[in-house]
From TrEMBL:
Region feature Disordered, mapped onto this chain: 252-338
Protein name: DUF7923 domain-containing protein
Keyword Coiled coil: yes
InterPro entries: DUF7923
Keywords: Coiled coil
Record has Cell inner membrane as a keyword: no
Stretches assigned to coiled coil: 19-74
Signal peptide range: none
Organism: Zopfia rhizophila CBS 207.26
Top-level division of the source organism's lineage: Eukaryota
Source organism phylogeny: Eukaryota, Fungi, Dikarya, Ascomycota, Pezizomycotina
Domain DUF7923: 75-255
């Protein structure tokens, strides 16, 4: 155990040591206090910054909600459904009962289109009856008229123009656009241009598209809003379109069925074949070489059903004797040429 200081100087030295330690402690405490105050000040700044950010975010959220409400209100004012029809495409030619009746046929077609489209929309939306329906039909009237004249369905272009006029005049939102002749004015191009324009419209509720798959590649369809789009089927769609999550439907009361694909013509000879046989001559016992057309069973049955005699060419046979004598037998008379 250390000895206690005995003199005043020793005791004073001890007090000085204690005083120095006290100052060191005070310095350490002051240093920690200053650091704590600095952290507190920084924390207060961060807190104010976070508060400002939160207030700004809250203001932006409120503003976004107001814009969303305004947009929803604006969209609810006049939503519409767009129907695009390429009437030049196979399978999208309208029924004869409409085309052949001039103006009355066009008006009847407009009524039927409105009924069928509204009927289909009821399966998609509860407010289908309140939606505006816009119909755009694109076709080359002159080319269509020439085709229908050859089919004996219309007499001239004027009759088809009257039909399209009746269609447009029946309902104000229905239009028939004559795209004219030529690739640059094709109906398919017009349909694609309308797709790029209308699909960005906020008022568009649904799109119904009747167009040839050749003018509607899957690469284009995949860029469109598929959730509000329906493809009209006139024939089997290619797998590139059916693999997409897009709705499909049919309108058999509007369009005639597309013509069946032409079967390839059989190759090779299809005419009558010649049959070569030997026949014994009952008079002289000689052998004759007989050449006659070979008829199928179906051809023979057809002749028997008609009940008529076989024609001269079908029963013609040529016989060649051993001495090069030629006999021509037509079934009615026989000639021998030596």
């Amino acid at each position: 155990m250390a000895e206690a200081p005995t003199t005043y100087r020793e005791r004073l030295a001890q007090f000085r040591i204690l005083e120095e330690k006290r100052f060191e402690l005070i310095e350490e405490l002051l240093d920690k206090l200053e650091k704590a105050e600095a952290k507190l000040a920084q924390t207060e700044l961060d807190l104010h910054s976070e508060q400002n950010v939160r207030r700004r975010l809250q203001a932006e959220v409120v503003e976004a909600k107001e814009r969303e409400s305004a947009l929803a209100e604006k969209q609810a004012r006049r939503p519409f459904v767009l129907v695009l029809i390429d009437a030049d495409a196979d399978g999208f030619l309208f029924q004869d009962k409409y085309i052949t009746r001039r103006v009355q046929g066009g008006e009847s077609l407009a009524d039927e289109v409105l009924i069928r489209i509204r009927e289909y929309l009821r399966t998609l939306s509860e407010d289908a009856d309140t939606l505006d329906i816009i119909v755009r039909v694109y076709a080359n009237l002159e080319g269509m008229a020439n085709f229908l004249v050859r089919q004996d369905k219309v007499r001239n272009l004027g009759q088809l123009r009257a039909f399209s006029t009746g269609f447009c005049g029946r309902i104000s939102s229905f239009d028939w656009v004559d795209v004219g002749i030529g690739k640059e004015g094709s109906a398919g191009r017009k349909v694609r241009e309308n797709l790029s324009f209308y699909t960005s419209n906020t008022h568009l509720r649904h799109l119904i598209l009747a167009c040839s798959p050749a003018d509607l590649p899957a690469s284009l369809v995949s860029t469109l809003p598929l959730d509000k789009m329906t493809l009209v089927e006139s024939g089997p769609l290619p797998s590139s379109l059916t693999s997409l999550p897009v709705k499909t439907t049919k309108f058999p009361t509007l369009f005639i069925a597309p013509p069946p694909p032409k079967s390839p013509k059989p190759r090779g000879r299809t005419g009558p074949q010649l049959q070569l046989t030997q026949q014994e001559n009952p008079d002289g016992g000689s052998t004759w070489l007989v050449i006659r057309p070979e008829r199928s069973k179906s051809q023979g049955a057809a002749l028997r059903r008609r009940g008529g005699p076989e024609d001269e060419n079908s029963s013609l046979s040529i016989s060649i004797g051993p001495d090069n004598t030629v006999s021509v037998d037509s079934g009615r008379r026989r000639r021998i040429m030596g």
